[in-house]
From TrEMBL, chain B:
Family note: Belongs to the HupF/HypC family.
Organism, scientific name: Pseudothauera lacus
InterPro entries: Hydgase_assmbl_chp_CS, Hydrogenase_HupF/HypC
Protein name (record): HypC/HybG/HupF family hydrogenase formation chaperone
Gene: hypC
GO MF terms, alphabetically ordered: carbon dioxide binding; iron ion binding
C-alpha cells in the first residue's frame, strides 16, 4: 500500500454491467499531525505535508489562523499573490488530468512535452510575480481555445444534438477526442441519481453550518445540510449551458470533463486578473467561536476547508475537509454513480468506471479492480 | 491532499527518468517536471513524476515527521 494512501475500487462485472462497486479509501488524515504542536511549527509543516496542493493548504491554514486570532484581512497585494499561487496550482492539476490522464484512458498519446513545459512555467509563476502569471495564463487560455474547445468557438449557437456536441469536441485535439469517445460510449444516467452539487458558500456560512471545529468522522465523510454533496468543477459550472446540457442528456461523466476545461479557463483568467469582482473569492475566512477560525479555499478538485482552535501558542484542534472526501463519501457521488449500470463489454465498463473516478478527481492514486460474478 | 513523502533518487535512467527509493520500495519516475536533480537528492513523487526537489534537511525533517506519525496513520479509517 502507498504510505500516502489511495483509493481502491473493487467492481463486480456480471456480463451485462456493474451491479456493485466497493470503495476503499486508505487516505490518512494529516490534520492529526498538527494537533498539540506550537502554532508556528504547525504552520511551517503544512506546505511540506502535501504533494499537490501545498500552497492552497498553507494559505487556507493561514487564513483560518488569522480568523481565529481576529486579525485584520490581508492587503490587496497579498491577496492577489495568494490567488495567483492557488490558481497556478489548480491549473497544474487540471493540465495533468486533461493532457495526461484523460487521453491515456482513451488510448491517445499524451502530449507529455507540452504538459511538462506548462507545468514548469506554472511552478515558476507564483514566485515570479504578476507578469509571469499573466504570461502563462495567456498561454493556457490559448491552449483551451485552440486545442481543447476549438469546435465550440466556431458557432455561436449551442449544439443541436449530442452527435453535434461530440463532433465539435473532436475538433479540439486529444481532450476533445476523449470527450467525443465518452459521449459515443452512450448515456450513463445514474440509476440512483446524482449527489447534490455543493454550492459556493462564504466562510461565515461554513462557520454557521459547522458550528465548531469538525471531528474526524465529519472530515472523513463530510455532509452539507445533512447529506453528501459533490464538489469540484461540475458543481462550480453547473449553470454553464453546455455542462447543463450534458447532465440533462444523461452524460454526467462527460459533463465533469467538459466542466474541467471550463474551470481551467477560469483559473487561467485568475492568473491574469486576480481578485476579479465578477468571480467568487478563492480564499475566505471567518471566526468559529472563541479562539477558533475556519477558512475555505477553492481548488481544482473543489472546496478545501481548514478549521482550527488555538489555545495560547498551541494548536488545540485541527480539521481538514478535503474535496476527495466529499466526492468519495460512502453515500456520495461515486457511491451513487459507480454501480447499477450496464455496458456492452468489460472493457467499456472498465473505461467508464475509470472515467467516473477521474472526473471526481481523487487527490491520491487509484486502482479499479474487476471481479467477474455470476449473471443476475 | 496527497501526502508529500520524500523519495531518494538512487539511479538515473534513459529519457529523463530516474529510480527513486521510498522506504525501501524502488520505482521509476520521470524527472521532466523538475530541474537540476542529482543522485542522492530527495524528490516528491506523484503518479510517476517527480514534482519537486527538497534539500536534505527538509527531506529528513519531513521523513521524521511521517515516521512519528506512522501509528496515527496506521489507525486511519476507511471511507
Amino acid at each position: 500500500m502507498n504510505p500516502a494512501g489511495g483509493l481502491l475500487i473493487e467492481a463486480a462485472w456480471d456480463g451485462r454491467g456493474v451491479p456493485s462497486a466497493r470503495l476503499l479509501n486508505s487516505r490518512p488524515q494529516a490534520a492529526k499531525l498538527l494537533v498539540g504542536r506550537r502554532i508556528d511549527e504547525a504552520m511551517a509543516l503544512i506546505p511540506a505535508l502535501f504533494a499537490l496542493c501545498g500552497k492552497a493548504q498553507a494559505l487556507t491554514a493561514q487564513a483560518a489562523l488569522s480568523a481565529a486570532r481576529a486579525e485584520p484581512a490581508a492587503d490587496e497585494d497579498a491577496r492577489s499573490a495568494a490567488e495567483r499561487a492557488i490558481a497556478a496550482e489548480a491549473a497544474q492539476e487540471h493540465l495533468w488530468r486533461l493532457m495526461l490522464d484523460w487521453p491515456a484512458l482513451f488510448g491517445i498519446e499524451p502530449r507529455r512535452g507540452r504538459f511538462a513545459e506548462l507545468h514548469r512555467q506554472l511552478g515558476r509563476a507564483a514566485a515570479n510575480g504578476a507578469d509571469s502569471a499573466r504570461e502563462v495564463g495567456g498561454q493556457i487560455l490559448d491552449l483551451v481555445a485552440a486545442e481543447l474547445l476549438a469546435g465550440f468557438f466556431t458557432m455561436a449557437r449551442e449544439p443541436f444534438s449530442l452527435g453535434e456536441f461530440a463532433s465539435r469536441a473532436r475538433r479540439g485535439g486529444s481532450i476533445g477526442a476523449a470527450l467525443g469517445d465518452l459521449l459515443e460510449m452512450g448515456t450513463h444516467a445514474p440509476p440512483h441519481g446524482m449527489a447534490a452539487l455543493l454550492p459556493w458558500q462564504s466562510a461565515a456560512e461554513w462557520a454557521a453550518e459547522l458550528g465548531r471545529v469538525p471531528d474526524e468522522v465529519f472530515c472523513s465523510a463530510p455532509t452539507w445540510q445533512g447529506a453528501p454533496a459533490e464538489t469540484g468543477p461540475l458543481a462550480r459550472h453547473r449553470a454553464s449551458m453546455l455542462v447543463r446540457l450534458l447532465v440533462e442528456r444523461g452524460h454526467p461523466v462527460a459533463a465533469r470533463l467538459f466542466a474541467a476545461v471550463v474551470d481551467l479557463s477560469d483559473w487561467a483568467s485568475r492568473l491574469r486578473h486576480p481578485l476579479a469582482e465578477d468571480m467568487p473569492v478563492v480564499v475566505d475566512a471567518a471566526p468559529l467561536g472563541e479562539g477558533a477560525g475556519v477558512a475555505c479555499c477553492e481548488t481544482a478538485r473543489g472546496v478545501l476547508i481548514h478549521a482550527l482552535r488555538v489555545d495560547g501558542d498551541t494548536v488545540a484542534e485541527y480539521a481538514i475537509v478535503a474535496p476527495t472526501e466529499w466526492n468519495f463519501h460512502p453515500a456520495g457521488a461515486f457511491a451513487l454513480e459507480g454501480s447499477g449500470w450496464q455496458a456492452p463489454d468489460l472493457e467499456t465498463a472498465r473505461r467508464h468506471l475509470n472515467a467516473l473516478v477521474l472526473g471526481l478527481k481523487p487527490c491520491v492514486p487509484f486502482e479499479v479492480r474487476f471481479t467477474e460474478v455470476g449473471h443476475a | 491532499m496527497c501526502l508529500a513523502i520524500p523519495a531518494r533518487v538512487v539511479e538515473f535512467a534513459a529519457d529523463d527518468q530516474a529510480v527513486v527509493d521510498l522506504g525501501g520500495v524502488r520505482k521509476q519516475v520521470s524527472l521532466a517536471l523538475v530541474d537540476g536533480v542529482e543522485l542522492g537528492d530527495y524528490v516528491i513523487v506523484h503518479v510517476g513524476y517527480a514534482l519537486s526537489r527538497l534539500d536534505p534537511e527538509e527531506a529528513e525533517a519531513t521523513l521524521a515527521l511521517f515516521r512519528e506519525a506512522g501509528e496515527l496513520f496506521g489507525t486511519a479509517g476507511t471511507a
